[in-house]
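User: Run a structure prediction on this.
Assistant: Running it now.
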Amino acid sequence: MLEFVDSYHHVKEEAGLFPVIQGASREQQKTVYAFLVEHEFGRRAAKRIEQEYVAWAKGEEAAEPLARFILTYADFIKAHTAKEDEWFDAVDGGLLSGSQQKEILERFAQVGTPGLSSKEIFGRRVKELARKYPK
């Protein structure tokens, strides 16, 4: 989760999209700032989930705090992505020029993608859990 949040989702937007959008208008600068604040909240929440998971896995904490943080994070992600989707529709609707859209795509290509695909990461986790909890 942390790898996806930092190495893919946030980096793509923060290095590729936001710098171009901020030049569009003062209003867009405010929008970008709001998303940056939400990204920081998401990073902190993901880190806290990791900490709660480690404590729970060691038997130091009950499952309730971990479950509460996961549910809170899920609610946050639903709201955040809904706002982003609405905003991306506005961007696609003509907020940016063709050259700005091209610049964003070039920036996205420079950022790249995480080293492992989601499928590979998921497969590793399943194998790890199968070893830890045999039948």
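The CA atoms of residues 54 and 60 lie 9 Å apart.
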